[in-house]
Amino acid sequence: MRVTERGEGVSQDHYEVLGVERGASADEVKKAYRKLALKYHPDRSQEPDAEARFKLINEAYAVLSDPEKRQRYDRYGHSEAVTNPFQGGVNAADLKDIFGQDLFNELFASLFGGAGRARGRVKRDIEASLSVPLSLVQTGGEATALVHRSASCERCHGHGTKSGRPPKACASCRGTGQARVQRGFIVMAQPCPACQGRGADLSQACLDCRGAGQSQREVEVKVEVPAGVESGQTLRLAGEGELARGQRGDLYLHVQVEPHERFEREGADLHLELTLDFHELALGASVDVSLLSGRSVKLKIPEGTQPGQVLRLRGKGLPSLEARGPGDLLVTVETRVPKALTAAERELIVALKSLSEERAADSAEDAPAPGPLERLRLWAIEALGGSP
Ligand SMILES: [Zn+2]
Ligand SMILES: [Zn+2]
After folding, report:
1. What is the structure's pLDDT at 110?
2. What is the DSSP track for 62-126?
3. Cβ proximity of 105 and 117 under 8 Å
């Protein structure tokens, strides 16, 4: 009985290894095995002893899944040493049944057949950029990313056949995808060489994907964008990456917020330039400001507002990703000068001009006599032909 050879601190008892009762049904054994094999598969697990644990799990399953071996084990408390549970004990058909074709391909296919396990991880995670309009930053919601990756072949609808219809079963393996190979007195299951383990007759393969059922192309991927997202942030979409060994990796989308023609963003604050008439600044006014959402809000222009002055609309900016409240909308007020005046307007502006000249003269009279520096300035302006 192998008790202390290896796996320190880990029970060698097959039932304990799988964590099932001694009276566990075949189904319970299967379920426990599936869970543990996924947890400790050396390609997936980060545990330092994953490989040793994985081996024990498979040995335990090889014995407990076989009624005859299990009975012997129950009676004598041990079984013959299992040197390789994938020879004779655990077989491919059983594993496909337990894990499904895709997971089987990823985790176990390479354990069968003499070629040995393909080393090295397959790169499945991919990156792409996502352009987000500013209005979506405010509301959050669905956006579409264009991603170059494999997708179900359009020509054959993913079947891989020239006809575009589901393929017939492989004649060589009758659709099981397996070939049984006799090695000495051990029968091993290997991927069927005629169909590369797919179980399908692909002798008349699709010309676009050569039978793979997948082709590289531009696909649209829908993504939920959180409100307040910023350029340079990355959104991760699990299971939207590249397909390899039956499993899709993750897609990483790098966000780029599109510039807006009216609003400029600064963190959660928005900046807007608003051009008003001279009289609105001089007399004060209440004006409508249309927001990013399309709704509009009243902005009070105080009397005597200067061009370039910034007025703040609290909470009318963008939501922030952090828990704090929304940013502000900062409105820079500018004024416009009419290009063509009506006769009446001209008359009024001329009147305004003489009024302000009078006012300037009044304040000049009130002012104390210019000091030496001021006299110098006035002389310089006169000498240069300007007016003060
Ligand atoms: Zn076949
Ligand atoms: Zn195709």
Report:
1. 63
2. HHHTSHHHHHHHHHHS-----S-TTTTTS-HHHHHHHHHHHHHHHHTGGGSSTT-PPPS-----E
3. no
What six digits make up the tokens of 55?
């081996």
Which ligand ends up closest to the CA of 175?
Answer: 1
The CA distances from residue 269 to 261, 305, 327, in Å, are 16, 22, 5
User: Would you say residue 210 has pLDDT above 70?
Assistant: yes
Ligand 2 center from residue 251 Cα (angstroms): 23
Question: Which strands, in side-by-side order, build the sheet including 234-237?
Answer: 126-132, 251-257, 234-237
Ligand 1 center from residue 172 Cα (angstroms): 5
Q: What angle do CA 127, 129, 135 make, to 5 degrees?
A: 145
C-alpha of residue 106 to centroid of ligand 2, in Å = 22
Residue 246: what pLDDT? Answer: 72
Element (H, E) at 311: strand 310-313
Mean model confidence pLDDT for the chain:
84
Specify whether the CB–CB gap between 192 and 176 falls below 8 A.
yes
Q: Check pLDDT > 50 for residue 117.
A: no
Alpha helices in 120-247 (DSSP H): 134-139
Instruction: State the ligand closest to the CA atom of 172.
Output: 1
pLDDT in tens, 251-295: 999 999 999 999 999 999 999 999 999 999 999 999 999 999 889
- For the segment 151-155, the average pLDDT, to the nearest whole number, is 89
Indicate the helix (H) or strand (E) that contains 38. helix 26-40
Quickly list H helices, 215-342: 278-283
pTM given for the model: 0.54
d(CA 235, CA 232): 10
Does the pLDDT of residue 236 top 70, yes or no?
Answer: yes
Cβ–Cβ under 8 Å, residues 107 and 96: no
Q: How would DSSP label each residue in 109-140?
A: GGGSSTT-PPPS-----EEEEEEE-HHHHHH-
The type of residue at 199 is: G
Do 320 and 327 form a contact (C-beta atoms < 8 A)? yes
